[in-house]
From TrEMBL:
CDD domains according to UniProt: AdoMet_MTases
Molecular function terms, GO-annotated: 16S rRNA (adenine(1518)-N(6)/adenine(1519)-N(6))-dimethyltransferase activity; RNA binding
Family assignment from sequence similarity: Belongs to the class I-like SAM-binding methyltransferase superfamily. rRNA adenine N(6)-methyltransferase family. RsmA subfamily.
The protein, known as: Ribosomal RNA small subunit methyltransferase A
Gene Ontology terms: cellular component: cytoplasm
SUPFAM superfamilies: S-adenosyl-L-methionine-dependent methyltransferases
PROSITE patterns: RRNA_A_DIMETH (PS01131), SAM_RNA_A_N6_MT (PS51689)
Gene field: rsmA
PANTHER family in the cross-refs: DIMETHYLADENOSINE TRANSFERASE, DIMETHYLADENOSINE TRANSFERASE-RELATED
Amino acid sequence: MLENFSQLIKRVKPKKSLSQIFLTDKKIAQRIVEALELTGEEEVLEIGVGNGILTEYLIKKAKFVYGIEIDKRLVDLLIEKFKDVPNLSLICQDVLKYDISTKKNLVIVGNIPFSISTPLIFWLLKYHKNFQKAILSFQKEFALRLLAKTKTKDYSPLTILTDNFFIKKSLFVIDRKYFLPSPKVSAMVMMFIPLKEPLYKIDYKNFFKFLRIIFSQRRKKIINILLNNFNKEKIEELKKFPFDWERRPEEISLKDFYFLYQNL
């Protein structure tokens, strides 16, 4: 490995257009990799290799590592740094365009540029059958929305949608000072474990559109939102069912949203 890699990587100015932030603390990187609980038999996909701080630990623990990095400047340096590592493939590509449909039981890890948080969640949904676990860091506020419970201000369409497909868990918070450049907010490391089968069989894109319509008027009662946006005759039929129509969106469970979605 190049002795002066750390000096070279410091010269690479993070691109604002890519929302690049690099983790700088090796103890935190090690903690993230340890949370994966790798046995040496797994194939790992690292999203956003960046300065290679996670990669250094992953190549020691995984059977094989696929490192995705969109920035060619970084990839060129990383290829040189890890040129003698046989269980690593570095790929210069946008992860959102990366196809893992042929993979099974992949393990995913990465410090995610905050700007791609929502698109990446949809990427995970698309490939939920192709990985066994993902540990990713997001902007703390975004992570809290994913983890929110009913009757809270953070409860959102993404909360409900991801509840249908994943077991989600907060692992720990990374203070903003451990990133370069330092973002305005801290990050939260989360674990996603895909359910063997989604709780409800839905088209996740259409279900999300439905939820966004509902939550665009989150302070209104559900009956008024539905009457303003959906077929009134169908709603009158639905009113025959035992359902609390006076609730607001943040008070409604995934199960009840699925009932509405299926019948409207």
